[in-house]
Each structure stands twice: as structure tokens, then as C-alpha cells.
Amino acid sequence: MVYWKAPKRSKSLLNLFVRSNSAITLLRLLFHTPKWIENHSEPQEYLKDVRKNALWWNIGVMGFALLYIGILFISTLWVK
To answer: Where are the domains of the chain?
Structure first.
């Protein structure tokens, strides 16, 4: 008779979360270049563009957040 064996769980809950979360798995491409991309120029260019766009997106979001916090801070000074 064939029995199914459950896969062993990782001892680290963080490691299990990182492996099971597809969003985090996709974000790995920002910091790690897979070996299969080294021989292909088109995926290399695509990955480079994704990395540049992610950098500009993060700079824009942080700039907007700092601007918003600054406006809120200045507006509280005028109220008093």
C-alpha cells in the first residue's frame, strides 16, 4: 500500500514564510540574478529595466511620503 508522506516543515517560521509567499519570491529578482539569465541578453535587459523601475518607484514613494509629512508638520505650525 502506498502512503503519502507530508513534507517536513522548516524549523524557521521566517524561512517557511519566505518560501511560500510568491510576492517575496518575485522580489528576490531585484537582488539576485538567476544563473540562466547570464547567457541570454533579452532577459538581462528586462531584469535591468525592472530593477531601475523599482528603484525609481521607491524613490518616488519615499519622496512623496516625506513631502506629505513635511506639509503636515508645517500646517501644524500655522494653526498655533
So the answer is: 41-80
